[in-house]
Queue: 3 jobs
Job 1
Amino acid sequence: MTTKDQGASGLSGLDELMYEPDGAGDEPRDPGRRRSGRRIGLIVAAVVLVIVLGVPAAYVGWAVTAPLAPPVASSQAPDFTPATAAAITLSPEGSSALSVIGGAAYLGPDGLSATSGSDEARPIASISKLITALVVLDAKPLAGPDDPGPTITFDKADHDLYDQYYVQGATVAAMPTGSFMTERDALATMLIPSASNYADAVSTWAFGSPGAFVSAARRWLTAQGLTATTIVEPTGISRRNTSTPADVMTIGKLAAANPTIAKLAATPTLSLPIFGTLSNTNDLLGRSGVTGLKTGNLGEGSYNLLYTATVDVGIGEPLSVTGVILGGSSRQSVDATVLAQLDSIRAGFHSVSLATAGQVVGSYATAWGASAELVVADSASILTWSDTAITMTMDVSDPADYRDGEVVGSITWTAGSQTATAPLEVRGSIEQPTQWWRLTHPGELGG
């Protein structure tokens, strides 16, 4: 039996472990090399673990802090119904003229004027008495509207004027021989009840004779530039006393500017011991703002009215209106036209509603579904004349907090020289998105 020397050629158990023959040509592994490989494996595993655990943590940190795109804003001008053009009523018969002064912010510095019919000269009837009063006061001025002036004593010739004008169908008032009256009261009797005998007597008293008065009246007319007006006697009973609407308008403004005439023309009734109480022939006094001035009628087809009115249209200052109608068919038709005319002036001033409180004029929207509205905070309107164009501007800035009630601008409307302004504010609040939305919408996050 043959035995081997294990000390020389055999393998120990440890050697067997270190030498694992897997096949022909395998060589034994180095123990130190194996220990190095194991260390590398542990390092790689640790790095992979850090990556696996660290990347999500970094993403979460970025997603929850990344800036958001601002809300998308949109806006539009609020709609409103523009004002309609004023339709001023003018006389459908004869000829007329109208002047409206005041409200320069609406009507401009020259005011409003309008005419109808021709500018031919027509009989002006008792409107002539305004010219007589102006010419007399030019020669015999009073210190003020309540100054009585000198006393006039009426003689037999003056008394006879009563019958002379009565038979002609003119308006008259008692004038007994030897009676007397102040200049102011005589002018009042001539203008308020339109007594023709007083117009004749006062003008003769002031100038000495009817002819001297006519000469003075013509000089006065020339001095005032009233070249289209003819005066042949002081009362207007003659159809040869004529004028045009344009000239009568000027006469009306001169009369209204005279304190004495303006006050007398606005007086509804006159009471004096000589004849008692007499009414003003202008039955529109006190109606629709009418303050004067003078009627003038010569029968059908020759009804005239020169009037003044003060019209409050809500603009702070009343309008001063002067109008004339010559050649009306009746007193009723003339009065109706004047009242309609004044109503049409008032209607020409209207308040235009521009916006109402809470009216939506824009919106804000976000990628995460939150939204708010841009609204007009207060109602707004503007008072304007006729169809004056209304323009609008919006001044809006980005909200700082997008919170309900935050004021972010204003809207301004302009009509001529008038403006109206209303603030704009946010309605509703835009809340921040949830963290879950941020984590699940990386493409909509900025930065």
Job 2
Amino acid sequence: MASRDIYERTFDEDGQADASANQCPECGGHVTTNAVETFCEACGLVLDAQPIDHGPEWRTFEDDETDPERTGAPLTPTRHDRGLSTEIGRRTDGNGNTLSGQKRCQLGRLRREHNRGRWRSKAERNLAHGLAETRRVASALDIPESIRDQACALYRSASSEDLLPGRSIEAIAAASVYAACRCNVLPRTLPEVGGVAKVAAERVEHAYGVLNRELGLPAMPTPPGAYVPRFASALGLSAGTRHRAEALAAKASDEQLAQGCTPSGLAAACLYMAAQERCERVTQADLAEVADVTPVTIRARWDELRTLVDDDGD
């Protein structure tokens, strides 16, 4: 018996005719439906398609109930290897069982050799140390993660441009955090960054000047109004006083009173004037301590603000 007698007609197992709509609305051709879409065999018009599956991407393994994800952590610029590292455990295995003493000793030797072989060169080891210092400074200043990542990327750029030889790693790391804050108009003063750094504030300022000059940072002067909410919150001032101080800071910026002045000192002077107008008790010494300036600076900016307000009649 010939094979064509057994299989009288052939068909595509993945494509079957749709009985309800077997004609193309465009050309009148035959419409076929497979596992993915419904299309016309003559003109190729797609009449219907399966929607995108937005379900979970992981697969089912033995630890599906405890850890269903099969994808690791995302890449991050805060690590020298961008997060693609291996960690050797200490007391438990992958199933959570306690390890024996002999196995812990073996893992200790493996961990020691693993730490020795993590860096391929001294430059990579210095990069890891610098990124760790950058993360520490950002954490001490309560910097958002997005700005912290930018600071780490900036430190990596400084390392690739050979700006580290002859300079302190700690100074470049702190300067990278300060530069990222300046580029994102985040109100953080240089004495604040220098206070949590492991080097003097003068060295951080010098390192920031090198980064700004060699890398061409898009750093803009921080407006005085950006410091007002943080200073007002630290002193417990009311919302009305804060809004009035922000309005005074905006007026001073429009009149170019902030040029050549410390923005934090002008913000403190705006808060002092607003507190006096609303009869709230705050001293220049308290404002000077929060703004990290001297009371003389606050009095000088306050006198300029009084002249500006009196001239405008506000």
Job 3
Amino acid sequence: MKPEELLYAESHEWVHVAEEEGQKVATVGISAFAVEQLNDLVYMDLPEAGKKVSSGEEFGEVESVKAVSPLYSPVDGEIVAVNSELPDHLERLGEDPYGSGWVIKVRLDDDAALGKLMDHAAYQKQCAAEG
């Protein structure tokens, strides 16, 4: 996926929504900017499929040498898939954050939360301000 095609939360998670078997499913990951800020990743804690998540709710965490950062769901729904290989291959977050570095997939309850997310241009402005 291309970063320009994604939506972003203020907390640096990205979202890509696609139709899967007639339902909207959001793939969620962590932006390249966030991975760079975290630097030296050492641990990741992920939820199990079947867990319900709400927009803005913590669903896991990623730990670097510097800090522990919560991961927040940018959408409402049920986790239908977890990238279970990711905690053993944290380098994928840096190498391919918008592809093999995806974190969870959520079947959307509704897409109201998507309206609160930023497009790529707005997210780039936020990153520049935080830079």
